[in-house]
Design brief:
five-stranded mixed β-sheet; alpha/beta; 9 helices; Rossmann fold; six-stranded parallel β-sheet; 242 residues; Dihydrodipicolinate Reductase, domain 2; 24% strand
Length: 242
């Protein structure tokens, strides 16, 4: 039976993961937070799930590499240096990194990529997201995931075509841009909408998270899938069989 260890076990997602592991009938190998014995947890686990913080990522990767253990990384707010560290670690161990572990969100991303690939750049793409008041990063990891899906569909680089934080006299919208808007308030678990706006018509593809458990269940499915994979970097598309 697969034993899953949790990095960031005291957070909201960590607590949801404990419930999801029990729900799936799997072993909970324990958890580690700041100041805990990370190496001992990694040794006791078949696979790790990390929903902690970007600043803890390198130590977690080092521990997983040393023990040869796979890891699912759901931590958001990652920057280029973090992704470079993941790429390097994935040469030695299986790593699944995603901005969102919900199966529904990842199906949405597949639909967004398909729509973007079929519609020309005369269709404007805008990505809206709203989260609870405690979320510290924006746009959300999920919004970025959806933006990357749209960029793949158009065979363009997201960073070169991204527009966000519009304020004041910004000028006309650039053709082919992918726009982002972030809202924060209340206890919203996560609302996302991708709008493809053409002349006199509009497509809206959306997903609403009603409970944090959807992310925890998806992460557990990802961990079960990842433990069977060889070294490399993976996404949720593999879990969904894309």
């Amino acid at each position: 039976m697969t034993a899953i260890g949790i990095i960031g076990s005291k957070g909201r997602m960590g607590q949801a993961l404990v419930e999801a592991i029990a729900e799936a009938g799997l072993d909970h190998a324990g958890g580690a937070d700041q100041g805990d014995d990370l190496a001992a947890l990694v040794a006791a686990s078949d696979v790790l799930v990390d929903f902690s913080s970007p600043r803890a990522l390198q130590a977690t990767l080092d521990a997983c590499i040393a023990a040869g253990k796979p890891i699912v990384i759901g931590t958001t707010g990652l920057e280029d240096a973090h992704h470079a560290a993941i790429d390097k670690a994935a040469e030695q161990i299986p790593i699944l990194q995603t901005g969102n572990t919900s199966l529904g969100v990842n199906m949405l991303a597949a639909l967004v990529e398909q729509a973007a690939s079929r519609l020309g750049d005369d269709w404007d793409i805008e990505i809206f997201e709203m989260h609870h008041r405690h979320k510290v990063d924006a746009p959300s990891g999920t919004a970025k995931l959806l933006g990357q899906a749209a960029a793949r569909g158009r065979s363009i680089d997201l960073e070169a075509h991204k527009e966000s934080g519009r304020d004041g006299i910004t000028g006309a919208r650039a053709k082919g841009a992918i726009g982002f808007a972030a809202l924060r308030g209340g206890s919203v678990a996560g609302d996302h909408m991708v709008i493809l706006a053409g002349d006199e018509e509009r497509i809206e593809l959306s997903h609403r998270a009603e409970n944090r458990m959807i992310f925890a269940r998806g992460a557990v499915k990802a961990a079960q899938w990842l433990v069977e994979q060889k070294a490399g970097r993976y996404g949720m598309d593999g879990v969904l069989g894309f």
